[in-house]
Amino acid sequence: MPDRSPETHVIDFRTAEHLLEARDPRGAIRLLDSVISAHPENTAARLLRARAFFLAAQLRPAELEFQIVLEREPDNAFAHFALGRTLERANRPAEALRHFRLAAALEPRPQFIEAARFASGTDDDG
């Protein structure tokens, strides 16, 4: 696409968010590829693309994107949690558990704690 402007990239990012909500991860990935190509430092776009890869069952690309996000933002609890889910889906439970525990330690949300297996056997909404 010739001469993409910064405004176009913002529109593409927002459209990709909507596509992801509408369960069209491949459409979101296509839009985000051009955004990330123009702005490789954009962590929000990388995180959104990682989520899209995950929803499209493209686990290796999802893992790589989540890792890039975590290199830049090692305290991003959601990225740790999502990487844990990706590794879990790839049948790598020990690696997944490490990221679940990091997510729970950084941000003790109930779903992070449950995944980290800190609160085994509790059904409390918290």
Characterise the protein shown here.
There is one protein chain. The chain is an all-alpha fold and 126 residues long. It has two domains: 1-58, no CATH class; 74-126, no CATH class. Helices cover 72% and strands 0% of the residues. The radius of gyration is 16 Å and the shape is elongated. The chain starts with 5 loop residues before the first helix and ends in a 10-residue tail after the last helix. Mean pLDDT is 92; it is low at 121-126. This is Tetratricopeptide repeat protein. InterPro entries: TPR-like_helical_dom_sf (IPR011990), TPR_2 (IPR013105), TPR_rpt (IPR019734). TPR repeats lie at residues 77-110.
Question: Which SSEs are present, and which pair or pack?
Answer:
Elements: H1 6-21, H2 25-38, H3 43-55, H4 59-72, H5 77-89, H6 93-106, H7 110-116
Count up the domains.
2
Count the strands?
0
Shape: elongated
The largest pleated sheet is described as:
none
Q: Give the termini separation.
A: 47 Å
C-alpha Rg (nearest Å): 16 Å
Q: Name the helix and strand elements from N-terminus to C-terminus, one letter apiece.
A: HHHHHHH
Question: Kindly state the mean pLDDT as a whole number?
Answer: 92
Residue runs with pLDDT of under 50 for 5 or more positions: 121-126
Class of secondary structure makeup:
mainly alpha
Helical coverage, percent range:
over 70%
**What is the count of helical runs?**
7
Query: What proportion of the residues form beta strands (DSSP E)?
Result: under 5%
Protein name: Tetratricopeptide repeat protein
Organism: Streptomyces kasugaensis
TPR repeats: 77-110
Keywords: Repeat, TPR repeat
